[in-house]
């Protein structure tokens, strides 16, 4: 007797072949056959309360595991709710697959329930978007979508599967189920370009390197560490590249970056575009030699000329450059001692200047004190997640992850509401890790109901809300642009007791008004073994320097 298989079961087989062990979803009639297939394939189904969270969780799962994440949502509003999560993954270069339901092909253009042109909507914010035309092609299209996620810099793909295609059964031997369809993407760059980089390093007296998110995407931590240590190059880190070097490492720098970009004679940018975070490249000294390394050819030299561009895998390129430069670098590397000492002096001055704020006993609490206490609380096994505007801008100056891959933020789309989803994915994928998330009260409000999902699936994490009852990053800009009398329009929130909200949903909650109680509250949350929210009342009249320097208001 011929063995038959449904479209939903073919989806599950294709996910299993890719190594996906969990999907994030919100149920809908269009997609339930996928759940049935996941049960048979041993794939966990985590159901959330909002599709945006499902998409953000798939993004977060990818960042933590190095494997593509997967979210499954129903048609129409289910898919449109997930658009923000897909867009965030697109700008952050996270490989994930969103599967959306669709009305039956037999009802095409007839006005079926929740019918929308999903593929047209998703095409601009994905690397691949398609409709599955027949049940026999389901697994084939899933594998194709995953493969496209890794073309150049990684990113998301989208598939819509019509309901009759998903529910139909076909002979198993008629369905294509790819098993080996991925190739290595670790391109080592043009050998001549590597030689030129080695020569630049040999002659540079004041080099520096910025290790961006692609260092973690490429799992290039060891190669980056070998590079900076063997060649004696001071390193700065941003995005997911944070934690590549541990705090206290002699080549780890953070607060002197602007000075270094002004004074360096050689600046190497790895896996970071010249976007708004880099002042579109204008923050780099025009006199410096600039080298840009990136997975995506289109990113190299965009917004700013470069002296040398190398396209490929960060780890492979840095390893090759280290090997090529090692034989000719000894004298130059030794001479860099003075340059590194110069940067360390600038670094120490900046740290010392801010230290009184980090130890402030002021009430309401100075945000610098809050992020200082969080930084002191983190261990080598703590994954830190930032979800917010002004309060997370404070943390970017102070919080230093102790290990690679232990920093998560939205990325350049600046999406608020990623925190609970990222915490969910991080704890589910790495239950051995502690997860610490800092939220702005506005950010938490967007997707906070999925705190209940964390409780339901027993995914403990330590959540901290820097509560100033405001969307303070926007408030600052409004007051600066229109005057204090109009600084409270459309940006003021209620004085919400998020600690009580946590307890209502079955988690651990505490309120903190005294800065001396932050550390004990963090410890109690850790010991509770539950999803937790510590509601910390911070001063609404204090703004992060990054907020006050935002170019959008100038």
TrEMBL record:
SUPFAM superfamilies: DHS-like NAD/FAD-binding domain, Thiamin diphosphate-binding fold (THDP-binding)
Classification via InterPro entries: DHS-like_NAD/FAD-binding_dom, THDP-binding, Thiamin_PyroP_enz_cen_dom, Thiamin_PyroP_enz_TPP-bd_dom, TPP-bd_CS, TPP_enz, TPP_enzyme_TPP-bd
Superkingdom to which the source organism belongs: Bacteria
Cofactor: thiamine diphosphate; Mg(2+)
Gene3D superfamilies named among the record's database cross-references: 3.40.50.970, TPP-binding domain (3.40.50.1220)
Annotated ranges, domain Thiamine pyrophosphate enzyme central: 194-320
Domain named Thiamine pyrophosphate enzyme TPP-binding: residues: 387-536
Coiled coil: none
UniProt entry keywords in alphabetical sequence: Metal-binding, Thiamine pyrophosphate
CDD domains: TPP_BZL_OCoD_HPCL, TPP_PYR_POX_like
Domain Thiamine pyrophosphate enzyme N-terminal TPP-binding: 6-115
Similarity comment text for this entry: Belongs to the TPP enzyme family.
The protein's name in its UniProt record: Thiamine pyrophosphate-binding protein
The organism of origin for this protein: Nonomuraea mangrovi
């Amino acid at each position: 007797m011929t063995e038959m298989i449904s479209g939903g079961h073919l989806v599950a087989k294709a996910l299993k072949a890719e190594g996906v062990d969990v999907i994030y979803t919100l149920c809908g009639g269009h997609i339930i056959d996928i759940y049935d297939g996941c049960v048979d394939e041993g794939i966990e189904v985590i159901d959330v309360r909002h599709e945006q969270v499902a998409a953000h969780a798939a993004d977060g799962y990818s960042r933590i595991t190095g494997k593509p994440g997967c979210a499954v949502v129903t048609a129409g509003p289910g898919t449109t709710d997930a658009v923000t999560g897909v867009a965030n993954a697109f700008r952050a270069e996270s490989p994930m697959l969103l599967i959306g339901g669709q009305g039956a092909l037999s009802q095409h253009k007839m006005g079926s329930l929740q019918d929308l042109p999903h593929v047209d909507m998703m095409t601009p914010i994905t690397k691949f978007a398609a409709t599955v035309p027949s049940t026999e092609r389901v697994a084939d299209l899933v594998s194709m979508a995953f493969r496209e996620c890794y073309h150049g810099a990684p990113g998301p793909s989208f598939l819509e599967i019509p309901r009759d295609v998903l529910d139909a059964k076909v002979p198993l031997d008629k369905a294509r189920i790819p098993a080996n369809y991925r190739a290595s993407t670790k391109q080592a760059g043009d050998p001549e370009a590597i030689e030129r980089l080695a020569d630049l390093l040999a002659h540079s007296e004041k080099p520096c390197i910025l290790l961006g998110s692609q260092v973690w995407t490429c799992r290039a931590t060891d190669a980056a560490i070998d590079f900076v240590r063997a060649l004696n190059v001071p390193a700065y880190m941003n995005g997911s590249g944070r934690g590549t070097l541990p705090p206290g490492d002699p080549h780890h720098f953070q607060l002197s970056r602007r000075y270094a970009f002004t004074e360096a004679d050689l600046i190497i940018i790895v896996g970071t575009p010249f976007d708004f975070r880099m002042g579109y490249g204008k923050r780099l000294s025009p006199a410096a030699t600039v080298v840009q390394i990136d997975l995506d050819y289109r990113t190299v030299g965009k917004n700013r000329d470069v002296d040398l561009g190398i396209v490929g895998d960060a780890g492979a390129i840095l390893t090759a450059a280290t090997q090529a430069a090692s034989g000719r670098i000894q004298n130059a590397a030794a001479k860099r001692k003075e340059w590194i000492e110069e940067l360390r002096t600038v670094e120490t001055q900046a740290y010392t200047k801010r230290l009184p704020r980090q130890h402030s006993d002021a009430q309401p609490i100075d945000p610098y004190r809050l992020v200082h206490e969080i930084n002191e609380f983190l261990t080598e096994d703590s994954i830190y997640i930032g979800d917010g505007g002004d309060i997370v801008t404070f943390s970017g100056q102070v919080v230093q992850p102790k290990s690679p891959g232990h920093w998560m933020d939205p990325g350049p789309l600046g999406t608020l509401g990623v925190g609970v989803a990222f915490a969910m994915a991080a704890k589910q994928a790495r239950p051995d890790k502690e997860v610490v998330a800092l939220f702005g009260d506005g950010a938490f409000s967007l997707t906070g109901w999925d705190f209940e999902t964390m409780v339901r699936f027993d995914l403990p994490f330590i959540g901290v809300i820097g509560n100033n009852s405001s969307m303070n990053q926007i408030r600052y800009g409004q007051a600066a642009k229109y005057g204090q009398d109009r600084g409270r329009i459309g940006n003021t929130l209620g004085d919400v007791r998020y600690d009580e909200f946590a307890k209502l949903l079955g988690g651990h909650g505490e309120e903190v008004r005294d800065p001396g109680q932050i550390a004990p509250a963090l410890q109690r949350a850790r010991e509770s073994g539950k999803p937790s929210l510590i509601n910390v009342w911070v001063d609404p009249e204090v703004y992060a320097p990054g907020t006050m320097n935002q170019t959008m208001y100038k």
